[in-house]
Specification:
single chain, 508 residues, alpha+beta, Methane Monooxygenase Hydroxylase, Chain G, domain 1, Periplasmic binding protein-like II, 4 domains, 8-stranded mixed sheet, 5-stranded antiparallel sheet, elongated
Length: 508
């Protein structure tokens, strides 16, 4: 009797496996600890879960059969499920460039701010004194007591002559961390601190913490922590940055649907995204199929040459073609405008007129996509029976009617899944928009970055990374809406294809 492949054949063979599992699990646990120690508890938890799952699947006999699917499941959870879930979570927070920190770090940043009194500012030099150092203030002739400069320290200044040995500036700069923690007391009791790489001065903290949720500024203004919005606020309601991350519920979604400056451009971009994806599929399919039919003509000479030339756009990397077209459509020096001006006396504003910019995007995308459709059509056309066409021709049908009544209906079913895939690709074709127009020209009257040629993907990217405020939370909310819409479209396509297949099988 042969042993099953997924169960160890003997107890002795378990020892090397368990040792290997133990070593890898310990390494993963150590990585989880390092991530947690570096302030990344979420990624530390993911690494801990991975270590636990690995130890259970590869260490326990009961689950050893799942070792083949464990890497795939782990990859899906870490690289697909986790980013989706985390993006959705961000959509319910105020995460932005103004709200990057935790509350504790925000308090630390605000209380570390200080104002320098320029009237007390004076240069300094550092004099070695055995294992310690002295601070020399040449303008006032004061020399500090010896200090170690290895932590928070205070030293008294006294009148003295200039030390015989002073450190070079570059050597003193190496001590900047200790200098920043040093407080000097002048003979009259004035406290001065390091105000830069070259000076000491009286430094007044801008804010002091008087309670867990309250700060007071140097002018006596009281700041109160508002944990609903993630900012300290003055009594008048003015926000003091930086802020901290907090959960704000559905506020981002309310902004999307209630703010005219957001809702207006979003609706426009949403409609344009669908139009762009649909027209891209229709145009690439039409051009590719037309060229494939022409290349199938038996009397056409130099077919091989034509095929090579027509496939070239597919062979050249897309980003190169897009950048080339960006130069060709240049409004002032591009070859396209030079030709149009020479022939018709016109110079279209391809990048500043919204309608022309969208037309340019469709033209470039058609150029990039038709070779793929042409290659597919050339294969599908070969599968259409010739006797069907000949029978229709004998009945007196024209070539055009034969194509639309016999050829096209037979190649559409195998084309349909590929057309749906092309629609999904173009729905999120951010690379084309980003390299060709960057979403420009901008839509007037908006409170967020939104352009005439933006699609939902590029719009979300600009909102999260190109905007001065970098509103990651709002971008996460819009991403969730996009996810819901795309999921609904995909489900509708799946249902339609399943029903069409059932009808075909019923007729058969």
């Amino acid at each position: 009797m042969t042993a099953r492949a997924d169960i160890p054949v003997s107890e002795g063979s378990d020892l090397p496996r368990l040792l290997g599992v133990g070593v890898i699990s310990i390494a993963l646990l150590f990585a989880a600890f390092i991530l947690y120690a570096f302030g990344q508890p979420l990624f530390g938890a993911i690494m801990l879960a991975l270590a636990t799952g690995f130890a259970i699947v590869f260490g326990a006999r009961r689950f050893y059969g799942a070792r083949f699917i464990f890497p795939g499941i782990a990859a899906v959870l870490i690289f697909i499920a986790f980013p989706v879930a985390y993006t959705i979570y961000i959509g319910f927070t105020n995460y932005s460039s103004f709200n990057l920190l935790t509350y504790e770090r925000t308090v630390e940043v605000l209380t570390s701010r200080a104002s320098v009194d320029p009237t007390t500012e004076q240069p300094f030099a550092v004099a070695p004194d055995g294992d310690n150092f002295r601070i020399w203030l040449p303008e006032t002739g004061l020399l500090s007591d010896p200090v170690a400069l290895d932590g928070i320290a205070e030293a008294q200044l006294n009148p003295a002559s200039e030390p015989s040995t002073l450190l070079e500036r570059r050597d003193a700069i190496r001590l900047r961390e200790g200098l920043g923690l040093l407080t000097l007391v002048t003979p009259d009791g004035t406290i001065i601190q390091n105000a830069g790489l070259r000076t000491f001065a009286s430094v007044t903290p801008d804010y002091q913490q008087i309670s867990p949720d309250t700060l007071v500024s140097a002018d006596g203004t009281v700041l109160t922590a508002n944990h609903d919005i993630g900012f300290f606020e003055t009594p008048e309601g003015e926000r003091v940055p930086p802020g901290w991350r907090v959960a704000i519920g559905w506020d981002n979604f309310e902004r999307v649907f209630q703010s005219e400056g957001i809702r207006g451009p979003m609706v426009s971009i949403f409609v344009w995204t669908f139009v762009f994806a649909i027209l891209s599929v229709v145009l690439t399919f039409a051009v590719g199929l037309t060229l494939a039919v022409i290349l199938q003509w038996p009397h056409l000479r130099f077919k091989a040459l034509y095929r090579i030339l027509l496939i070239l756009p597919y062979a050249v990397p897309a980003f190169i073609s897009i950048l080339v077209f960006r130069g060709l459509f240049n409004q002032n020096f591009g070859e396209i405008n030079l030709i149009l001006e020479a022939l018709f006396g016109i110079r279209p504003d391809w990048f500043t007129d919204g309608t022309l910019a969208r037309s340019m995007v469709l033209i470039v995308n058609t150029w990039l996509g038709y070779p793929y459709m042409m290659l597919l059509a050339m294969g599908f056309l070969q599968a259409v029976p010739e006797d069907h066409k000949k029978a229709a021709a004998l009945e007196g049908a024209s070539a055009l009617r034969v194509f639309f009544t016999i050829t096209l209906p037979q190649i559409i079913p195998p084309f349909l899944p590929l057309l749906i895939a092309s629609f999904a690709f173009n729905f999120n074709n951010m690379v084309l928009i980003f390299l060709l127009t960057r979403g420009l020209p901008d839509i007037p009257g908006t409170v967020i970055p939104a352009g005439e040629t933006d699609i939902l993907a590029s719009f979300t990217y600009r909102l999260a990374f190109d905007n001065a405020g970098q509103e990651f939370g709002l971008a996460g909310a819009i991403t969730l809406l996009i996810f819901v819409v795309v999921a609904a479209i995909s489900y509708a396509n799946f249902v339609a294809m399943r029903r069409a297949a059932q009808r075909r099988s019923g007729r058969a």
